[in-house]
Amino acid sequence: MTKVRKELIKELEMYRAYNEQEEADRQVILDSLLSEELIFERAESTKHITVSAWVVNPEKTKALMAYHNIYDSWAWLGGHADGDENLLRVALKEVSEESGLKRTHPVSESIFSLEVLTVDGHIKKGSYISSHLHLNITYLIEADEQEELSTKEDENSAVDWFTLDEAVEASSEIWFRENIYRKLNEKLRELK
After folding, report:
1. How far apart, in whole angstroms, are the C-alpha atoms of residue 143 and residue 101?
2. How many CB atoms lie within 10 A of CB 94?
3. Contact by Cβ (8 Å): 115, 20
4. Spelled out in words, what is the top-level CATH class assigned to the domain 3-191?
5. Nearest Cα residue to 103 out of 119, 94, 92
6. pLDDT at res. 192
7. Can you list the positions of beta strands (E) in the chain?
8. What is the DSSP code (8-state) at residue 72?
9. Residue 12 to residues 23, 83, 147, 192, Cα–Cα distance (Å)
10. Which PROSITE patterns does this one have (predicted)?
11. What is the DSSP string of 16-50?
12. Most buried of 1, 9, 74, 180, CB within 10 angstroms?
């Protein structure tokens, strides 16, 4: 087991769950990190580690969302670890790739939120991907809302800033809207 994985396990063991969902999902993620050697790879086809970023402006009044083509919805930014166990680095890379932002930084290097997410089967790059779980680690990332945005055409068709409440309402995915994005905003408001 690598040093980075050991540090992630330790952080998850000490992580203070915000609610019942986070506590249940924390245990699933921990169990998987301890038992699944390839959990950071997509080769683990039934479940694997992913990373998301709740990107906010410095005032923490707006969130950045991308219109994801697969989900046909406005959503947070993020992606697969693809073997990289440094999840904060993955989060920052995904934000840059999906939004064009170059000047981002973590509000904290600590995990902001945890989620086990179901992913329905879908077509990606011409191939069928079976339904599976994303064991998701979320980081709070800050960016300048005046910086120019761009899309990643193979993943999203728009990127834009929304007020915190508008970001929740922009999503057409009810479960995300009610259980993830609202939670992220509640946690964010507690930081202020």
Report:
1. 8
2. 24
3. no
4. alpha beta
5. 92
6. 67
7. 47-56, 62-68, 73-75, 77-80, 104-106, 113-119, 122-124, 127-129, 132-143, 156-163
8. T
9. 10, 19, 33, 24
10. NUDIX
11. --SSHHHHHHHHHHHHHHHH-TTTTSTTS-SEEEE
12. 74
Q: Do 52 and 138 form a contact (C-beta atoms < 8 A)?
A: yes
Q: What is the pLDDT of residue 124?
A: 79
Phi then psi for residue 37, to 5 deg, are: -60, -40
CA dist., res. 56 & res. 101, Å (int): 12
Other C-beta atoms lying within 10 Å of the C-beta of residue 92 = 19
Helix axes 20-35, 3-14, angle to 10 degrees: 150
As given in the structure block, the two tokens for residue 144 are: 């300048």
- Quote helix, strand, coil % in the chain, to nearest 5: 35, 30, 35
Distance CA 40, CA 80 (A): 8
Token couple for 69: 């083509």
User: How do strand 132-143 and strand 47-56 relate by DSSP bridges?
Assistant: parallel
- pLDDT of 2 > 90? The answer is yes
DSSP annotation of 167: H
